[in-house]
Amino acid sequence: DNKLKNILARGGIEFLAVLFGITGSLFIEDKNNARELNAQLNSSLHALKSELLTNAEQLENLKQVIPKRLPELDFVIKADSLKFLSVDKLDKYYQTSSTNWARKINNRVFNSMEASGLIYKIKNDSLRNSILNLYQAIYGQYHYLHDYDLTHIQKFDDIILSSDFLLRDDSNVDSWQWVVDWSKGENIKQFKENRSFRNFLIANRGNKRLMMRVIPRYIDETDKTIELISYYLND
User: Fold this and answer.
1) What gap in Å lies between CA 218 and CA 179, rounded to an integer?
2) Which long-range contacts (CB under 8 A, 24 or more apart) does 19-24 make?
3) What are residue 180's DSSP bridge partners?
4) DSSP state of 105
């Protein structure tokens, strides 16, 4: 009986040793995985912060550009004094009036974090929700305005090509812009009398004014998220 008890005791000890060994290994593995995940998160958040700093700078530049260019668009819509401008000035004002002024927000880092599911591994609810709201809601609004503006510009191209506008045949191989032949008086007349053209200019100005109104909020939301990331990384 004692011999059997000893065998059972040894077996029990060996079992416990194996059990503790497995438990310890799993604990170490979990700890290593958690450490690796944390390192990935920190690395990705550093990259995301750099992306957001670039976005903030881009938005700030747009905030400065719009009020500077809007008077040119106002001048073109009024059209009364166009005939007094030089060809270079007319080209500049026409280009301002017929192009989009913004470009898309950078989102490669966020897209990568979302696709991998890494963004949802952030345990800090405030930080995670701020990032998701910024890219999905705030930047989503921005891209809607940007895409609408760009689509509007493309429709404007159709107006130019299908109306009585005469484009300048520029023999310079380095010239790629569509420029109006200002030597033709009927082109200036189009600015005053072409209803579709004028409607486009007025709608274009309205869209630019809307962007000017909302850009400061987009900058503020970007700055808030940058601050949250900085606080998280320095904690």
Assistant:
1) 34
2) none
3) 167
4) P
Q: What is the pLDDT of residues 55-107, one digit of tens each?
A: 999 999 999 999 999 999 999 999 888 888 898 999 899 888 888 899 899 99
Amino acid at 51: E
For the record, the structure tokens of 184 come out as 């033709």
pLDDT above 90 covers a percentage of the chain that reads 46
* CA–CA gap between residue 107 and residue 112 (Å, rounded): 9
Structure tokens that stand for 45 in this block: 């958040």
To which residue do tokens 């032949």 refer? Answer: 181
Rounded-to-integer distance, Cα 110 and Cα 119, Å: 8
Q: How many CB atoms lie within 10 A of CB 228?
A: 20
Structure tokens at 67: 């009020």
pLDDT band at 13; cut points 50, 70, 90: low
Task: Please tell me whether residue 96 adopts helix, strand or coil conformation.
Answer: helix
Question: Is the Cα torsion angle 217, 206, 92, 162 positive or negative in sign?
Answer: positive
Give residue 12's pLDDT: 55
Residue type at 17 in one-letter notation? A
**Cβ(26)–Cβ(73) below 8 Å:** no
What whole-number distance in Å separates Cα of residue 58 and Cα of residue 104?
9
228 touches 126 (CB < 8 A): yes
Q: Using CA atoms, how far apart are residues 119 and 183, in angstroms rounded to an integer?
A: 58
- Strand, coil or helix: what is 78? helix
Does 110 have pLDDT greater than 70? yes
220 pLDDT band, cuts 50/70/90, is very high
| Token pair 């593995």 in the structure block, residue | 29
| C-alpha torsion angle, residues 26, 32, 33, 38 (rounded to 10) | 150
